[in-house]
Amino acid sequence: MKKDNMTQNPFSLIADFDGNIGDLFEVKVEASLPILPLRNMVLFPGVVAPVSVGRESSLMLVKQAVSKGEGAYIAVSCQIDAAVEVPHLDDLYPTGILAKIIRLIELPNHHTTAILQTFGRVAIDPHPTRVNPYLRARVESLEEVIPNEEDPEFSALYETFRETTFKYIKASENLGAEALFAVQNVTNPIFFINFVATNLPFDTEEKALLLEEGDVKKRTFRLLQILQRELQYMQLKHKIQEKTREELDQQQKEYFLQQQIKNIQNELGANEGGEVRELREKSEQLPLPIAVKTMFEKELQKLERTNPHSPDYNVTLTYLETVLSLPWGKYADDNIDLKHAQRTLDRDHFGMEKVKERVLEHLAMMKVRRENKPSIICLYGPPGVGKTSLCRSIAESLGRKYVRVSLGGLHDESEIRGHRRTYIAAMCGRIMKSIIKAENNNPVFVLDEIDKVTGSNFNGDPQSALLELLDPEQNNSFHDNYLDFDYDLSQVFFIATANSLSTIPGPLRDRMELINVEGYLTEEKKEIVRRHLIPNEMKTLNLPYEVKLSPAATEFLIEKYTRESGVRQLEKQIAKLVRKIVLHTQTSADGLPPFSPNTSLKVTDIQNIMGTPPYNRDTYDGNQYAGVVTGLAWTAVGGEILFIESSVSRSKSPRLALTGNLGDVMKESAMLALEYVKSHADTLGLDYRVFDHWNLHVHVPEGATPKDGPSAGITIATSIASVLTQRKVREHIAMTGEITLRGKVLPVGGIKEKILAAKRANITDIILSKENRKDIADIPERYVKGLTFHFVENVDEVWKIALLDEVVSNPIELSVYEEKITKE
């Protein structure tokens, strides 16, 4: 890009104007003139200025203007953006200057300089009259308000402006004696003001705004403000430079004094510099990479030159100690014995066959992989199912160190990547802290509660910071802001845990192998109580008797005192049971437990000791009422059965009422279900006018509990159909599925948890979408034993299975009546 128009020394040419300045503004034009665009240069009225011409179009313009003689006027305007090579009128400021070319000078370096005499300001029409070979447009002269020479306010303003200009030029490093000499020889006030506005190095945009101001007095006020601002800026800059120079001189003085003190101490045999020598000796024993070693030596030399009493000394010392504390070249030997791993997993966790199989597959691949880059897995499932303890078992089976970082509620990106050393009390992030704690480069690293990490905020984006960490192709050069160099984490076995995948961003989820850790059956919980929970509780106690539970008592404790997919609350209830037994034993007169020693506790014993059960097992209510249908729902603590109740009432202004603390998605399902029933009234044998005379109320009990999700769609549709037809619903049947406006039944999730809830409630038949058949195939046989599954594609099939031809006792007659209109 050619940088034309700006001259090297704007004060190299000045016109000795001694006539009446008003003569320059008497030239009035209203015609189409050539437009000469300038870069980084704004001309003001009455100024003679050299302009460097570099564009082909500009060269052609000035040469033709010269060839036309003295009467040829041109218009000159500055570009808004100097980078534009071929400017149009939209790229120029709308206010320009009328000018003549006095002389054209061909320089030896093939550059051309045009000497311009400027006149008054002109307004440039935004619509060009010609574009090639150069711009032409209509221009119109603008009025210039020149103050009276006898105006005392203008005289004082001008004197202040002149003095400030001299101060500015003297203080400026870029303007020399030539500039000062040039402005001192200007005697006309108006010409002086415009000359300064043209040639002093202010911002181009500010100059363009000054040119738009037609009142010379106001222009002078604004120009004086700019000069004073720039002068204050230069004075402040000089003050900072002086202060910096004094500080550097003081630091050099302190350095020389410190060197002299060291020399004196060395002569006296004093042991100074021990920390630096110790750090250097330790670094030489470590296999540091070349880049890190170079950086370390540079920081060590900086430490040597720093006063030990300076705050920077401790900052640098802490950083170097952190670098040396990293486990450079240290790796734990893997003991990948799949049989040992299987025994360890079976010893610590009951059930979980599918999860254990997936874990063993990962270990087997690690054993045969040429490059030891373990896959990054994510264990997700409800709370308390043993995700974190499973990670401990994996670390034990591999013989690796176990480190864990809890990410729950983390909202600051620097917690992961560390703080830059420019901050006070900066430190490395949690990741590198844990690596230092592990003392080797291949621990089992657990990122707990990864779904609880918050998204982007004013502290950065922690979720995005995890992308580099959890990508096997990138974590060989993980960058911590505090360390400020890349560190290889590719040998670390990362395991993430989460309760739900919905809050984990897609890119982060794609980087991990997902393993679903499902909830436990009641039968599995009974074995966990017998094998793990009670023995673990009794291990720390010194009691003359044992606490044992019969199978019935264990099931009673699980079903009546807990409601969860995992065993965390169950563990607390067992601890509570043991506490109450110990308290009773120590406070009773005979010193005996509240049961026969060395016998198993029965159901009555549990209830006597623990009190009234807080939960009731989900039970099926029967089919004696129209509009009551059993649905299946998934919650964070497992599956539950859900009752949908519908009722009708006569009304002159019918409406649909929804109650039970329902979310937006569930409300939409209810509206879809009603619309489908309306459109298929003939299939149900309904008179369509029923909807004009009867209110419909859909209610989901337990209103204090929020309920949402699309899986109750077919349940609501069946409930509405049952109450409108007063037909019974088939006994011991439950259903789950989403519906569309066309009545298609869509698949839903959480099938295993929903099946467990159905079994607890003595349900025998379950209606599911046909696309959920694959989910049933993946569930072990013992989970589905005793259940009959009905796979459907649309709501009509649901009604054929769920609705009986038999009506309920005392059915409501949904009569259709017409209001009689009487005329007076």
Structure commentary:
This protein has 824 residues and is α/β, with parallel strands linked by helices. The strands form 8 sheets. It has a 5-stranded mixed β-barrel with strand order 1-3-4-5-6. It has a 5-stranded parallel beta sheet with strand order 8-9-12-7-13, sandwiched between helices. A 4-stranded mixed beta sheet has the order 16-17-19-18. Helix content is 42%, strand content 18%.
Keywords for this entry:
824 residues, alpha/beta, 28 helices, 26 strands, 42% helix, 18% strand
In short:
With 824 residues, the chain is an alpha/beta fold.
Query: Helicity level, as a percent range?
Result: 40-55%
β-strand percent reads 15-25%
Integer average pLDDT: 83
Shape type = flat
Provide the low-confidence segments as ranges: 6-19, 268-272, 819-824
Please tally the β strands and state the result.
Answer: 26
Strand order of the largest sheet: 1-3-4-5-6
Distance between the termini: 93 Å
Computed over alpha carbons, the radius of gyration is: 44 Å
Computed structural class? alpha/beta
Largest sheet: 5 strands, mixed, barrel
Oligomer: single chain
DSSP summary: helix tally: 28
